[in-house]
Specification:
The protein is α/β, with parallel strands linked by helices and 136 residues long. 32% of the residues lie in helices and 10% in strands. It has helices spanning 10-18, 29-32, 35-47, 61-70, 120-126; strands spanning 2-3, 24-27, 52-54, 94-95, 117-118. The strands form two sheets. A three-stranded parallel sheet has the order 1-2-3. It has a two-stranded antiparallel ribbon with strand order 4-5. The longest helix has 13 residues, at 35-47.
């Protein structure tokens, strides 16, 4: 059994594992509150021999880039549901777009940061309203 929506923290994962309530855990960055807690969940699961997989939440390329980075952690041993940009977006807001290989995998970028550049002109073309805050 895989636990998904019931895991919001490393503490939740530890509790579920202690109860033998799961054999797999799904981790979504947005659901657990970001990278720090996602890494904690992954560590708890890995140390307990529970595999984890990365769940997506229909993110744009920026969110996908973070999911791809998270999925490179050692405990992420099962295929996730991070998909190509083209699955949901005619044109994503990152360059290059996230692509899936013929083997069904996504190659993690090797450069620092999120590994993708934000396509500012695309973001600007989608912006409906913009308020700029300047300091004096």
């Amino acid at each position: 059994m895989c636990l998904d929506e019931s895991i919001h923290s490393a503490e939740d994962a530890r509790h579920a594992i202690d109860l033998n309530a799961c054999r797999v855990v799904n981790v979504k960055l947005g659901r657990v509150g970001g990278h720090t807690e996602a890494k904690r969940v992954e560590a708890v699961c890995r140390e307990s021999g529970i595999p984890v997989w990365c769940g997506g939440m229909l993110e744009s390329g920026i969110g996908r880039a973070h999911n791809i980075a998270m999925a490179t952690l050692a405990g992420f041993t099962l295929p996730g549901d991070v998909s190509a940009s083209s699955r949901y977006w005619e044109e994503d807001i990152v360059e290059p777009p996230v692509t899936v290989t013929s083997r069904g995998t996504i190659t993690a970028p090797s450069q620092p940061g999120i590994g993708f550049a934000v396509n500012r002109s695309r973001v600007d073309s989608l912006t409906m309203r913009c308020d700029r805050i300047t300091s004096k």
